[in-house]
Write a structure and sequence with these properties.
The chain starts with a helix and ends in a 5-residue tail after the last strand. Strands 1, 2, 3, 4, 5, 6 and 15 form a seven-stranded mixed β-sheet that branches. A four-stranded antiparallel β-sheet has the order 12-11-13-14, sandwiched between helices. A two-stranded antiparallel sheet has the order 7-10. The protein is an alpha+beta fold. The protein has one domain (2-255): GHMP Kinase, N-terminal domain (Ribosomal Protein S5, domain 2), CATH 3.30.230. It contains five helices and 15 strands. 33% of the residues are buried.
């Protein structure tokens, strides 16, 4: 393992990774929309070069108060350590992505009836590298496809009885403020995008940065014991904004293939 790590680090220093990509080059990501017929919105993400295939579905039900719940499962991984990793990813996505979904749009009758969203993610693994970023892409695309049944609600002032009426047209979920996560790592002081599993074992610092479609930084979390200089931090933020901009441009233009690749 030590020799494999040395091979990875030496390659990164020379600007060439073991799978042939440059440090700033991500794997090709292909997307298919609305593949799950029973979901309010869904997406499938296929990532090239032996990465994960991700399926995300959004289901909605009427409850007493609005809520958003995320569940992530990975096929073929059941160890306690990996389950802990999934719980950590879920918590990070809650803070960096899902908290920015405007819950007011889920309200049908204030303080009485609202939509609850259940976001279910299944990772069909070839390897489980860069999971947090790829899952955030799949969630964003599924939310973009989500349509809620048009329901108008009102309360009889005399009897206090609640009434729900189904409308003709569905309601599109508004995700204008919802970001995606771009993960950037420093390996031997070199900035690297879209890590493989072996590269993840070589990191000094890994940043998960959420960026919205306007280029606003919404939040940051850090992994690893290393520290970053002011210059490295600025470089990471700029790189994340560029990578997110390319992702949103592809999605908003309905281009179903995405790859970040810039000097």
């Amino acid at each position: 393992m030590q020799s494999e790590k040395k091979f990875v680090i030496d390659g990164v220093k020379q600007g060439l990774r073991s799978d042939g990509r440059a440090c700033f080059q991500s794997r090709v990501l292909e997307c298919a929309d609305n593949t799950e017929l029973l979901a309010a919105g869904s997406s499938q993400m296929g990532i090239s070069l032996y990465a994960s295939h991700i399926i995300c579905g959004v289901k909605a039900e009427i409850a007493n108060e609005p809520g958003i719940f995320l569940s992530i499962e990975v096929a073929g991984r059941s160890s306690s350590g990996f389950r802990d990793k999934l719980r950590e990813i879920t918590l990070i996505l809650d803070q960096l992505v899902l908290k920015y979904i405007e819950k007011e749009q889920l309200v049908i009758i204030k303080d009485k009836k609202s939509w609850k969203l259940f976001i279910d993610v299944l990772v069909l693994q070839e390897n489980s590298s860069n999971l947090l970023e790829h899952i955030s892409f799949a969630i964003w695309r599924a939310l973009k496809n989500t349509k809620l049944i048009g329901v108008a609600g009102f309360v009889n002032k005399n009897t206090n009885e609640e009434f729900l009426q189904v409308e003709d047209l569905p309601r599109q979920l508004n995700i204008d403020n919802v970001p995606v996560v771009i993960s950037v790592a420093f390996i031997a002081e070199c900035l690297v995008l879209d890590l493989t599993e072996l590269e993840e074992l070589c990191i000094d610092v890994l940043l998960h940065i959420s960026v919205d479609s306007c280029g606003n930084i919404k939040g940051i979390t850090k992994e690893g014991t290393g520290s970053l200089s002011y210059f490295q931090t600025c470089k990471a933020l700029t790189t994340c904004k560029l990578a997110a901009r390319q992702f949103f441009d592809h999605c908003l233009n309905n281009n179903f293939q995405y790859k970040s690749n810039y000097p």
